[in-house]
Specification:
By secondary structure, the protein is mainly α. The chain has six helices and no strands. α4 runs parallel beside α6 and α5 runs antiparallel to α6. It is flat, with a radius of gyration of 20 Å. The termini are far apart.
Length: 144
Protein backbone atom coordinates (compact mmCIF):
# COMPACT_ATOMS: atom_id res chain seq x y z
CA UNK A 1 0.00 0.00 0.00
CA UNK A 2 2.87 2.37 0.82
CA UNK A 3 4.52 1.92 -2.58
CA UNK A 4 1.19 2.64 -4.27
CA UNK A 5 0.86 5.94 -2.40
CA UNK A 6 4.44 6.81 -3.30
CA UNK A 7 3.76 6.36 -7.02
CA UNK A 8 0.52 8.34 -6.79
CA UNK A 9 2.40 11.21 -5.10
CA UNK A 10 5.23 10.98 -7.65
CA UNK A 11 2.75 11.07 -10.53
CA UNK A 12 0.96 14.08 -9.01
CA UNK A 13 4.29 15.90 -8.58
CA UNK A 14 5.44 15.24 -12.15
CA UNK A 15 2.02 16.28 -13.48
CA UNK A 16 2.14 19.52 -11.48
CA UNK A 17 5.67 20.28 -12.75
CA UNK A 18 4.64 19.66 -16.36
CA UNK A 19 1.56 21.86 -15.96
CA UNK A 20 3.69 24.67 -14.48
CA UNK A 21 6.18 24.38 -17.35
CA UNK A 22 3.32 24.57 -19.84
CA UNK A 23 1.88 27.65 -18.12
CA UNK A 24 5.27 29.38 -18.21
CA UNK A 25 5.65 28.87 -21.96
CA UNK A 26 2.19 30.18 -22.87
CA UNK A 27 1.97 33.66 -24.33
CA UNK A 28 0.38 36.06 -21.90
CA UNK A 29 -2.26 38.33 -23.29
CA UNK A 30 -2.00 42.02 -22.58
CA UNK A 31 -5.19 43.57 -24.01
CA UNK A 32 -4.61 46.93 -22.32
CA UNK A 33 -1.06 47.20 -23.67
CA UNK A 34 -2.20 46.13 -27.15
CA UNK A 35 -4.98 48.73 -27.11
CA UNK A 36 -2.56 51.42 -25.94
CA UNK A 37 -0.15 50.55 -28.77
CA UNK A 38 -3.00 50.65 -31.28
CA UNK A 39 -4.15 54.07 -30.03
CA UNK A 40 -0.62 55.46 -30.11
CA UNK A 41 -0.09 54.18 -33.64
CA UNK A 42 -3.46 55.53 -34.78
CA UNK A 43 -2.91 59.02 -33.37
CA UNK A 44 0.80 59.12 -34.19
CA UNK A 45 1.57 60.12 -30.61
CA UNK A 46 5.10 59.48 -29.50
CA UNK A 47 5.12 57.02 -26.61
CA UNK A 48 6.64 57.50 -23.21
CA UNK A 49 10.09 56.50 -24.44
CA UNK A 50 9.57 52.80 -23.92
CA UNK A 51 10.99 50.67 -26.65
CA UNK A 52 9.08 47.51 -27.36
CA UNK A 53 11.55 44.71 -27.85
CA UNK A 54 11.30 42.65 -30.95
CA UNK A 55 12.73 39.20 -31.09
CA UNK A 56 15.75 38.68 -33.27
CA UNK A 57 17.59 41.99 -32.82
CA UNK A 58 21.04 41.55 -31.35
CA UNK A 59 22.05 40.00 -28.05
CA UNK A 60 19.00 41.08 -26.08
CA UNK A 61 16.72 39.88 -28.87
CA UNK A 62 18.31 36.45 -28.64
CA UNK A 63 17.81 36.44 -24.87
CA UNK A 64 14.22 37.70 -25.24
CA UNK A 65 13.40 34.83 -27.59
CA UNK A 66 13.63 32.41 -24.64
CA UNK A 67 10.11 31.88 -23.22
CA UNK A 68 9.60 34.12 -20.20
CA UNK A 69 12.84 36.03 -20.68
CA UNK A 70 11.21 39.20 -21.97
CA UNK A 71 9.29 39.60 -18.71
CA UNK A 72 12.52 38.89 -16.82
CA UNK A 73 14.26 41.63 -18.81
CA UNK A 74 11.48 44.16 -18.16
CA UNK A 75 11.39 43.36 -14.45
CA UNK A 76 15.15 43.67 -14.04
CA UNK A 77 15.21 46.87 -16.10
CA UNK A 78 12.65 48.32 -13.70
CA UNK A 79 14.69 47.17 -10.68
CA UNK A 80 17.87 48.68 -12.12
CA UNK A 81 16.09 52.02 -12.52
CA UNK A 82 14.81 51.77 -8.95
CA UNK A 83 18.37 51.12 -7.79
CA UNK A 84 19.47 54.35 -9.47
CA UNK A 85 21.09 52.97 -12.63
CA UNK A 86 19.77 55.11 -15.47
CA UNK A 87 22.03 53.90 -18.28
CA UNK A 88 20.25 52.45 -21.28
CA UNK A 89 22.84 49.69 -21.62
CA UNK A 90 22.67 48.67 -17.94
CA UNK A 91 20.29 45.79 -18.63
CA UNK A 92 22.71 44.40 -21.23
CA UNK A 93 25.61 44.51 -18.77
CA UNK A 94 23.44 43.00 -16.04
CA UNK A 95 22.31 40.17 -18.35
CA UNK A 96 25.87 39.44 -19.46
CA UNK A 97 27.00 39.42 -15.81
CA UNK A 98 24.17 37.01 -14.95
CA UNK A 99 25.14 34.64 -17.76
CA UNK A 100 28.86 34.76 -16.90
CA UNK A 101 28.12 34.21 -13.20
CA UNK A 102 25.84 31.28 -14.04
CA UNK A 103 28.45 29.77 -16.37
CA UNK A 104 31.18 30.13 -13.73
CA UNK A 105 29.05 28.43 -11.10
CA UNK A 106 28.10 25.60 -13.46
CA UNK A 107 31.71 25.16 -14.57
CA UNK A 108 32.97 25.22 -11.00
CA UNK A 109 30.39 22.67 -9.94
CA UNK A 110 31.26 20.43 -12.90
CA UNK A 111 34.92 20.65 -11.87
CA UNK A 112 34.14 19.85 -8.24
CA UNK A 113 31.80 16.98 -9.18
CA UNK A 114 34.05 15.48 -11.87
CA UNK A 115 34.81 12.29 -9.90
CA UNK A 116 31.27 11.67 -8.62
CA UNK A 117 28.62 9.54 -10.24
CA UNK A 118 26.06 10.98 -12.65
CA UNK A 119 23.21 11.40 -10.14
CA UNK A 120 25.37 13.36 -7.71
CA UNK A 121 26.72 15.48 -10.55
CA UNK A 122 23.19 16.36 -11.71
CA UNK A 123 22.19 17.28 -8.16
CA UNK A 124 25.18 19.59 -7.84
CA UNK A 125 24.55 21.16 -11.24
CA UNK A 126 20.91 21.86 -10.33
CA UNK A 127 22.03 23.52 -7.10
CA UNK A 128 24.61 25.63 -8.97
CA UNK A 129 22.01 26.62 -11.57
CA UNK A 130 19.52 27.71 -8.91
CA UNK A 131 22.12 29.75 -7.04
CA UNK A 132 23.39 31.31 -10.28
CA UNK A 133 19.88 32.29 -11.31
CA UNK A 134 18.50 33.46 -7.97
CA UNK A 135 21.47 35.19 -6.31
CA UNK A 136 21.95 38.10 -8.77
CA UNK A 137 18.20 38.81 -8.75
CA UNK A 138 18.20 38.74 -4.95
CA UNK A 139 21.10 41.20 -4.76
CA UNK A 140 19.47 43.53 -7.30
CA UNK A 141 16.21 43.43 -5.40
CA UNK A 142 18.01 44.44 -2.20
CA UNK A 143 19.57 47.43 -3.99
CA UNK A 144 16.26 48.52 -5.50
Amino acid sequence: MGIFLFFIAAFATVTALMWCAFQLTKDREDPLGDRLDALQNATMVVGSGKVKRTKGKGFMGAIASVPGAEDWIKENEKRLKQAGVKSSSAIVYYTVFNLIFLALLLGGMAFIQRNNNFAQMIGGMVAAFLIGYILPNFVLQKFA
